[in-house]
């Protein structure tokens, strides 16, 4: 669809409210969306093709006294103008939402507006980005744990994602997101984080904070239980195959002290390989420790949602 040049933004009066014309203003548009004091002139056909809500809305009879702008009906929305702007940019400029990494406010807009007005494609694409960062399998978690893959990172992003997921019932995102947060100390969880734009701080809503605090405690206790990641430290079952029992027992004791001094946080599914290099275990014990950690991480992942008072993995769903 061709797009003529947008006229410069200008102000007009509607019911004594000062209104700003956005830079998304299609000269041949057939409807004006108004969010806050910002108006966007777009096409009913574009909205209706992508949203079942707008498709239904298009067919409703319009009151004869409804205010118009340049002959176009005005549809007032209760949403943030920036969210509507991101939505419309995605509809008119496909490359906008196909970028490898998007700013979080854009992803948030796709989730909120996509869910509210049933822009299914944009909603699904945003949820996919969130699930890439905080997946539902241990294999995917290990593959993408090192860096942000689909969003531009900033301090506090994990908190913002957890809040967004909880507000919009994206339950599959929450276990890994909560676990990531629970790896921090309790004091850090309670501290607000300044975002890079210095205009806002990222903090956790009460429900997310409570789940992280309780889950952190549960994960810390669980990781030392038999069969879990660090359970082998408490119950040493490798004596029969050990090549140097005195050395390995001493290393085990030293590692236990190290964990208690440095791991007063959740490490239920975190690999422990770098730490093991600090201690002198024989090759046989080292292999059995490795196998125990691998099995323990899998078991820990299976239990992860339950630690944060969520349903098990196979019952977690997204949406209402």
UniProtKB/TrEMBL annotation:
InterPro entries tied to this protein: BTB/POZ_dom, SKP1/BTB/POZ_sf
PROSITE patterns (UniProt xref): BTB (PS50097)
SUPFAM superfamilies: POZ domain
Sequence ranges assigned to domain BTB in this UniProt record: 29-92
Domain of life assignment: Eukaryota
The protein, known as: BTB domain-containing protein
Organism field: Favolaschia claudopus
Lineage of the organism: Eukaryota, Fungi, Dikarya, Basidiomycota, Agaricomycotina
